[in-house]
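Run log, item B.
One chain of 832 residues. Sequence copied directly from the ordering sheet:
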Amino acid sequence: MKLRNKVLIAITLAWVVFLVVTYVGSQTFLLQSFLKLEHDRASENLDRLDQALDQKNYSLYTFTSDWSHWNDLYDYMQGKNPAFVPNNLNMTAFQNSTINLLTYWDTNGKLKIGTSIDVDAGKIIAYPEDIETYLYPKSLLLDRHDANKDVRGYILLPSGIMLIAATAITDGDKVKAPLGAMVNGRYLSDKIISKIAEETRLNVILLLPKDIVNNSVYQKAFEIVKTNDNGHFDEPINEVNIQGFSIIRDINKKPIGMLRFESPRSIYTTGLSAIHYYLILFLIVGVILSALLVGLLRSLIVRRLEHLDSEVAEISEKNELNRRVDSAGSDEISSVAQQINSMLGIIETSHEQLENRVRERTQELQKTNIQLEQEIAERKSVEKDLLVHKEHLARLAHYDELTGLPNRVFFSEILNKTIVQAKEHHKRFALFFIDLDRFKKINDALGHPTGDLVLKEFADIFKTTLRKGDILSRLGGDEFVILLNDISDSSIIATIAENIFKVCAKPIKIRSHEFFISASIGICIYPNDGASLEDLLKNADMAMYKAKRAGGGVYQYYTEEMNLEASAYIEIESKLRKAILNNEFILHYQPKYTIKDGQICGVEVLIRWESPEQGLIMPEKFIPIAEETGLIMQIGEWVLREACKTNVTWQEQGFNPVSIAVNVSAKQFKHQDLVKLVDNVLAETGMSAEYLELEITETAIMENVESAITKLNALEKKGIKVSIDDFGTGYTSISYLKQFPINILKIDRSFIKGIPQNHNDNAIASGVIALAHSLGLLVVAEGVETNEQLQYLAEHNCDIVQGYYLSKPLSNAKITIEFNKIKNLTNETIPT
């Protein structure tokens, strides 16, 4: 680009920048000043609106104040001047004063006389609706006990906004006690608004709440204006007009409407035109000055610089480094020419040196090129090895190393894609969540290497049940998941589940071991049971645990109730933990009676939960959850300690010592420190071991027979009695029964319920009694609820009974009353 063009561009850019700065400055400062003037004008207009409206209100107040201080009215309010109404309250007076509501009220807030008038039609009309919102005894309008304190303002009625004034009714000199209140009203009608518009010379309209609600612009203005201290708000409507709003509040200061005016933006448009005129003037002046400046620069500088530039270009083009430019003169351009000549000399010398250096460098590069070719060959070999390792790492990242199945990460990707495709094509698919039953015992007994071989075998087995397109994945541990694609026929789901159980039913041989392992399957279906990866896996897992709790070896479909049960489970667990901290548990005691004499020989301790939110909760609601979460350890320890403390207290009160039976959960019994815990509790409470009876279920004892015998022997040495609870419902072998150092057998209530009508129950009950007596054990029958059951047990020599027929579980206070009765009866029978 030629120098003169560059100069022209530079000058043009300078003027453009100047104009832009000028324009921005005018917009930022000058135009803002016009906008400020416009806002001030709008504020003045709103003040004029307020004054005009206040004058209308004040005229009503003046009328009301004059009428309320007539001596004739004062006499009428005292019942002395009955002619006051016909002489003064007539349609002519109402029309002359444009009054729409005229009322007189006594000091108790009771209407003395009043009327509502349609001034335009010249007739009496019904009272305005909802006027009682403002007019009621002791209201702001009617509470006029001070003659010098009046009220004027506005009220909102369904028919519109009404100007209102209330003054005390007194004599002309205002020295007598007020006899009530005069309340007058005048609708803020279109005529009044028109008069205000004429007085202010503004385009004014009244906006009621119904008008504001139906217009978003009015709603916004209403929200702003009711929070402003002056009750005003103005804003431009467009480039031509501006609007302003003034709030109207009722006598309770509640916003009930607005006045709106609209006027031209004369100040703003004038200012904007002025700015545009100035900018055009600046532009014209700038063009003229730029042309003069360019001509001057060209004649003095540019022409000589162009000549110098052409000489330098010619030297460069012909590569004549020994040639020099014209440097005649003594100004700055001549100095530049001399410097160019000096630089040409330096370049000429450097050029020769550079040619020598290039030749040397070329020889070096040839040697380096040979080395680079060798390094590239080595690098390609390394990259090939890295590619192999990368593929191996990618497989490790997506596939389970043990079974070769897709792992959790890869399966999540597959499932997400399947969800997207199923949603697009409106298809269904199913998810099987599979867990091997009692797999942990294989790892514990034979070690993890054997367990890994079992998992690989099951991976191969599950593959045989799949259809083409189905996906099998191992999520971890002994958990597998199967994705059944495109299940248009729901019967396919059950068929595949049954096939899985069939292949699982066959024995698996690993090394020298043979295993029979069942599986529990949870099934959920897209989209019925979830629309996301997280929901589908969670719900299938929930269904699998439902199958687990059912004993395993079954499949279970997900239902919404499972989710509710899980939520309830979590809620109860959380509240249960708080209950332990807040000590919300109490104990009830069910008496046990000897059949021979009908005396209380002991009590069974039963826990109850006193929840602040739900009241008394029975153990079947929370004990299973406590068992699963491990909270039963803390609860069981508390029950044992509290029961022993209570029994010691009974003995200190002089009651006959009784045996107290405490239930021990399966988890408690398995704990290695059970015997130590019982020792510590007995030591802390001071209760003798002979009065403690521990009730343990058949299932807990039979889970580990050797360990159970060791613990029972330890308890027997300390003098603690042990009973087998719910006998007949478990799997106790007679051969084991004689090895257990126990004292009592408790017949489960399920067998007592059927006697004497059910022959099978009769046979079981009598058989257990005979078996226990032959082993030297006492027999307790629980759940006795009828006299026939009690009679049958007595006839078959049952030792002890308990149940609702004899006594429900009692609180500590009620069992103490029973003990007192026994104590008093004993004292009465002892001879004095």
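Observations after the first pass:
- The mean pLDDT is 86.
- The chain is about 55% helix and 20% strand.
Flagged for discussion on Thursday.
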